[in-house]
Structure prediction request, 302 residues.
Amino acid sequence: MFAIAIHGGAGTLARGDLPAEQEREYLAGLEFALDAGFELLERGASSLDAAIAAVCVLEDNPLFNAGRGAVLNRDGVAELDASVMEGRNLGAGAVTGLKHVKNPIELARRVMDNSPHVMLVGEGAEEFARLQGIELVSNEYFRTPVRQQQLQRLLRGVITRENELAAFGTVGAVALDSQGNLAAATSTGGMTGKRWGRVGDSPLIGAGTYANNASCAVSATGHGEYFIRAAVAHDICAQVEYLAVPLRTAVDNVLGKMARLGGNGGVIAIDARGEIVLEFNSEGMFRGQRSSTGMRAVSIYR
Prediction:
């Protein structure tokens, strides 16, 4: 048994607000990422390799808020965050405040594999990227006309930050390989118009990303401050491991707790048996899942 699930953000994008042609483009982008990860699993690759491959595809797709197409901070600069975790021995790597790393998720993997640390920040992370031979690009590479327009509307007060962020968020993947190992990967550009070096949940192990072979793997998307406060990813896995509750029950419990705090968003999760849960308390979540049992699906709304 092996399987993979992905997400491309969750929020209050109402059904019908997304033009049909654009909806088809998003679904095609999700399918491409899903298949990229699944094909590696079919060839016997690790869950971590598969999750990272899927996230790289989403980072390279300007439709999503990660890598090229990431939202911009108040100064019009893309600042990128990412994290990875593998469930076999709880290895983890994270990066935040990147401005020149083409695929932040690949650098997070290098932090895990080739450094004694878990998280690297800003200039230090990019110096490590240079030493590792990771591809660096101009910050202009990440900026798209759509994201520049969104920032300008925010600065003019035409839209609120919450509404602007609601439609398109973080990307991520969780996977189970044929060896029974779990992994999770998450990448984001954060919040439109963010200031003061703001960091959300995506690069924080236990908040936006967590994986443990004893329980499950989780990647989150939504209003990061609430995912941090509720330690969403770790709490889901802890409930599965220590309370022995089904994965769906754990997801519902934790998203319910976050909602009571006022948080909005969703998670993708997979357990050691291959059960997949894609759940959200927003109007939609860009998501997909595929397994060795023949199941393959992508969707946006319920």
